[in-house]
Amino acid sequence: MLLPTEQRRQLGAFLRTHREARPPDAPSRPSRRRTPGLRREEVAQLCGLSTTWYTWVEQGRDISLSASALARIADALQLSPAERAYLFELSRRRDPAPPAAAATQGAAPVELAAALRAISAPAYLLDRLWHPSAWNDAAGRLFEPWFTSSERCLLRYVFLDPSARTFIFDWEDRARRLLAEFRADTAHDPGDLAMRALVTDLLKASPAFVRLWNSHAVLSREGGTRVFNHPRDGTLRYEQITLIPAAHADRKLVMLLPRPI
Fold this sequence. Notes:
By secondary structure, the protein is an alpha+beta fold. It has 13 helices and five strands. It has two domains: 5-91, Orthogonal Bundle (434 Repressor (Amino-terminal Domain)), CATH 1.10.260; 103-259, Beta-Lactamase (2-Layer Sandwich), CATH 3.30.450.180. Strands 2-1-5-4-3 form a five-stranded antiparallel β-sheet. The longest helix has 17 residues, at 5-21. It is elongated. The N and C termini lie far apart (51 Å). The mean pLDDT is 87.
């Protein structure tokens, strides 16, 4: 797929700027080196590409760009995760080796945990494998059946814990939609081994998961009405809102606004 002219120019300017900002591994004496940063031929050599091809990319020529070549350029220029994501977004290619996501599990970022405490409605944070990494007191009470169960992953709770079928109103429809939303998440990084392992385990453990997973439905994580049969508070109805924090795109901040029954 060839890029429009203006997009090719933006890509070339982006690469040129970051090439000039990348110091050489073995700096030359100022009198011997007038080019700021790396030379084009040095980047090409680091990437295992021809100097002519790389030069054409910077010049915005109408040439084909493979994802593997772009990945090598990103590595050679030592792009940050945000810069690397921009490079692939601009070139309309999928990164074959996106930055490792393992660090996104575990404790929630401090600022997001503080945001949860400032929200009066039930609110919680999901990591990339749909484990709750933080929540406020209101969410702690609402989701007591889930948070106190042995299955902390939302998918595993829904499909493996018997209490989920009572706690979640209209379990079949919610389970189907939840799994379609999770399938959409898997497309962001199909090589994620932890995510694949989660799916494999559920395929072995839950016939309902097998049936719904094989329907291949896909949805973005939506809001909408959520109804729960709470063991202490009875029937509760909410409007769910899901937000993706700009600085933590691998997290989901979920809020539930109370609504009358």
